[in-house]
Amino acid sequence: MTQFLSRIYFGNTLQNWLISLSIFVAGILLIAIFKRVILKRLKLWAFRSETTFDDFLVLNFEKSVVPLSYLAVFQLAINLLQIGPKIASVLQIATLLFITFFILRIITSVVKKFIFSFIRTSENRDSEEKQANGLLLIINIIIWILGLVFIIDNLGYNVTTLITGLGIGGIAIALAAQTILGDLFSYFVIFFDRPFQIGDFIIVEDNMGTIEYIGIKTTRIRTLSGEQLICSNTYLTNSRIHNYKRMEERRIVFKLGVTYQTTSEIVKEIPVIVKEIIESTKDVRLDRGHFSGFGDFSLDFEFVYYILSADYNVFMDKQQEIYHRILCRFESEKIDFAYPTQTLYTVPIRKTQELQE
Q1: Which string of b and e fits 195-231 if b means at least 16 CB within 10 Å?
Q2: 0.70 cut: is pTM over it?
Q3: Could you tell me the pLDDT band of residue 255, with boundaries at 50, 70 and 90?
């Protein structure tokens, strides 16, 4: 029996082959048992929990760590054997590619998890998930390029020249396409800082409209007149933006004037009348109301109130209701609104001649 086990096949004794095969089969069986028992229970536990982070960990463990475990069992078994330098070199390269692939896969999945976890805090989750696909594509390209450089370096090649060439080429590309790269970085700023989102109504300088699409280079706005306005991302990040979607309530300041023939008693009552009208209007909060000054042709009053809604139609409806009630009340109280007038005093001709003499 000992003599039989001492026979050499492909540079190794039969005993070493059997030991190596036994270790490999035992390792595969242990991994299979782990997947069927422990990993299955972990999946059930993660499914029942309220958070999604544990589901992410279990899923990545199954997709990446378990295949690496098969590789570890194979390496443990093959280390007991004497193999030629060519085969060892091929196995080393294959192992390097295998490990690098799954490590990069874990990194990309972590980045994707981070970005989509960031998106879940947004109201426009569906639109931002579409927007994130372009961002993920850029990040994945960068990660896989770095992984390729890592593989080339570990294969024994000198990557210094390659990195230097990439650096010089990157500088040349950056100088030639600095506008595009500026818009790209502005896209990152818009994505993570969220000055506006798809569906927001914004005003940028003399342009206003609703955000329809946020791209890597441009953002598209649907204006009130119907046409699509296309702006570079850099232009938007460098501008002052009024985002009306974020507005919780509207502050209204309005003035009215009555004629100078209005009596002091009525002037004293006007702020009270208007305040009662504003306070009795639903979803409106009064701030102040005063007799504010003496105009050129009117006694001026100023009132400030808040409409507890960001909707523009609600704002116009409430303002119309308040103005109409003020008009009706002033008509019933015989209060006259002022309008631009001038009083011209004339002197009779006869009296003018007497003054001249």
Answers
A1: ebbbebbbebeeebbbbeebebbbbbbeeeeeeeeee
A2: no
A3: very high
